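tl;dr need the bound structure. longer version: we got a ligand (phosphoric acid mono(formamide)ester) that a collaborator sent over and nobodys looked at where it sits. i said id run it. heres the input, straight from their email, havent touched it
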Amino acid sequence: MKREKTKNLIDIKDLSKKDIDDLIKVANDIIQHKEKYSHKCDGKILATLFFEPSTRTRLSFESAMLRLGGKVLGFSESSSSSTAKGETLADTIQVVSGYSDIIAMRHPKEGAPVVAANHSMVPIINAGDGGHNHPTQTLTDLLTISREKKKLDNLTIGLCGDLKFGRTIHSLITAMSRYKNTKFILISPDELKIPDYIKTEVLEKNNVEYVETNNIEEYMSELDILYMTRVQKERFFNEADYVRLKDYYILDKHKLSTAKKDLCILHPLPRVNEIATEVDGDSRAKYFEQAYNGVYIRMALILSLLEVE
Ligand code: CP
């Protein structure tokens, strides 16, 4: 069965700055007037196809659709789907797109959402593909930054941890590179530096200022945002390398001693050991608000992709 052309969200670049502004505007309105949106998706079905583990992304998508009045179906691990019997992604998508109105999919293979979009009759949302992209986390991050800072321009952003495999980092750099006077401080061990293609095709191509360091305290006093990330155990080939690098950065109160009073500390979560729990009570720690914001921006995204007024 062939489909009409539908909108998808595969890469954050699929959205213009205006699209992102509009989504943030709608998400803020949803936060203010939740009841206004509670029947917007009556009769609609979201399928969540998660071939990799997730807590926030899957459940916030499901919460988003339920809060819009719609229904959800799906699976949370490939072993409980017919993938375990050898079914191809293309066939799975072809079938599930006949059971649902929109699909959020997480897959360990980079590029899998493109394959899905080519075989779907309904919009596909990339909920994370391997170490590549995680555009809806970026929308969550942008909503959080805009709510905390009241702007998206003129920000110095520290990105710390696994910049090599951290897909949230790759999407966030791509998005923030479009805003005026963004400066990145890229903080990582040598083995986990940002991939060259992000440096050349995103940062340098857009004349975005950045520095690389392995010292989390070196630029702390300059940061408006500090975005911590976990070392991505599941992308390592070698357990010994993971063990050596996993606790390279642990943000604690002492390391924050030179930070701005209005620093905004973010983390896409899950946290393993990168932020000491003593930081959770600091008024600058915004990572749980960030996780809550994920529901509202995903509600806005579902409305947009389903073209609900
Ligand atoms: N931030 C994020 O993607 O979390 P989950 O892996 O729990 O979905």
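gonna send this back to them w/ a short note. The first strand starts at residue 45 and ends at 50.
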